[in-house]
Amino acid sequence: MNVIDRLVGYFAPHAALRRRAARSVLAQYEAAEPSRMRKFRRERGSQNEVVQLGAAAVRAQVRHLARNHDLARGALRTLVNNIVGAAGIGIEPQPRRLDGTIDSEYAAALVEAYRDWCRRPEVTHRLPWSRLQRAMVRAWVRDGEVFAQMITGPVAGVDHGSRVPFSLEAFEADYVPLELNDPKRGIVQGVQRNQWGKPLAVHVLKGDVSSPALPSSSGATKPVPWDRVLHLATLDHIGQVRGVSEFASVITRLEDIKDYEESERVAAKIAAMLTAYVKRGSPEVYDPETAPAPGTRQIAFKPGMVIDDLAIGEEIGLIDSKRPNPNLITFRQGQLRAIAAGVGASYSSLSRDYNGTYSAQRQELVEQWVHYAVLCDEFVGEVVQPVWEQFVLAAHLSGVVRMPAGLKPGSENDAMYTAQSMPWIDPVKEATAWQILIENGLGSEAEAIRRRGRNPADVIDQIAEFRRKAEEKGLRFGTAAADPAPNEDTDDADA
């Protein structure tokens, strides 16, 4: 025990014990002890305090990169496309009767009303449901969070775009002030919570949406009850209120690549402008009266030209700029691999470098698709499923789709959500694998169809319609799906 510890122990024994315990921990964990070769970072406050200090700045920087940097924009687009896809998240209703069977008629009625609603699901009537999903995912990945308000029934000024009186009002993180904190009312970063941390409302900025500027001049807000709010956020810690961008950890690398490539590009342009120079010998070989004045002579370079007007002692020197830098590609590849690991995308999808074998590409895609599936699950759980459940409720209350008798309680809004399917690198190998699984009873046709991002009921209807039209025209094809179904009575008679 050193002198300081003895002094602390004399005046504050408890503090001395804590110092001793801390020293014991440092002795057990080498990483817990800072040194000259190892930096030591300490947490400065809670995670909400960290978000309060840096989330807005990070969000602004990521938006700048998404607007002006091709790699950042491409990474953002890759994440959005693989999470949502072109058609958005598909929904297959699964309402069940009391005996456990699916009520197909009621499910078909819900699908018909839902497809009509998907054309104009939000209050502006500008975005269909699939495009609105991509817009929300883009804001979520870029800004760290996105909000939406569910509006049901008649509301002043709201024109519902379908027979079902239900619409969405999506808004980005700017409309919920991060600096709005009121401990007396339980408001933390614009979100009002109770004493247990349960969200009660979100305070949204008031203003005219037709204005090009964010309505932040007055700072007045309005509370929106939490049961009407959709909040999709990247939360790294338990108890965290607001989200932080997925790009927060890779901003520096993206800026480094941008700055480095710009420097190399400028250097290459300058090098291309400098062609050659005239190198003169010692001064005594020149005649001041006949030698050209410095800076007055120009030599126009042409392909295959011969320079024969050099003075005595002069020679042509070529400039070797060593541009472009051969290390640029290696540096860029290393940085892109680190960026891909940070944002959760694959290196090949970010760099558009597909110089790999089928096995390598397949392994990279399989491992990466797990991350896409996790993000898609978060999006479905926080946005798509609550929207579907509220849509079904609004359809019932408005009388657009009537709930049949004999339906199992609580199953009226049950559904299966079909996400973006993993693409096939080699369609023949993928299809053969599924065929083997189905033939050996390890999978079903419906599962294979869902893995491709399709609804089995829609596929069956399409096959049936195709068969009918083919039979009307007397056509036969080499596919089993195009052949008519076997007649059981005929088969039994033949037997």
Topology:
Elements (H helix, E strand, L loop, with lengths): L2 H9 L1 H16 L18 H22 L1 H14 L6 E4 L10 H16 L9 H15 L1 E8 L13 E7 L14 E2 L2 E3 L5 E7 L15 E5 L3 E5 L17 H23 L2 E4 L35 E4 L9 H16 L3 H5 L6 H41 L16 E4 L8 H13 L5 H7 L4 H17 L15 H7 L1
Antiparallel strand pairs: 1-11, 2-3, 2-8, 4-5, 5-6, 6-7, 9-10
Helix pairs in contact: 1-2, 3-4, 4-6, 7-8
Report on the biggest sheet. Answer: 4 strands, antiparallel
Number of helices: 14
- Percent helix, as a range, is 40-55%
Beta-strand residue fraction: 5-15%
Shape: extended
Number of strands: 11
Q: Could you give the distance between the termini?
A: 98 Å
Helix and strand content put the structural class at: alpha+beta
Strand order of the largest sheet: 4-5-6-7
* Rg computed from alpha carbons, rounded to a whole number of angstroms: 33 Å
Give the mean pLDDT. Answer: 81
Series of secondary-structure elements, N-terminal to C-terminal: HHHHEHHEEEEEEEHEEHHHEHHHH
Spans of at least 5 consecutive residues whose pLDDT stays below 50 are: 490-495
Structure description:
With 495 residues, this protein is of the alpha+beta class. Among the domains are: 3-32, no CATH class; 47-233, no CATH class. 45% of the residues lie in helices and 11% in strands. It has a four-stranded antiparallel sheet with strand order 4-5-6-7, with no helix packed on it. A three-stranded antiparallel sheet has the order 3-2-8. A two-stranded antiparallel sheet has the order 1-11. Strand 4 (187-188) and strand 5 (191-193) form a beta hairpin. The longest helix is centred in the last third of the chain and has 41 residues, at 358-398. The radius of gyration is 33 Å and the shape is extended. Mean pLDDT is 81; it is low at 490-495.
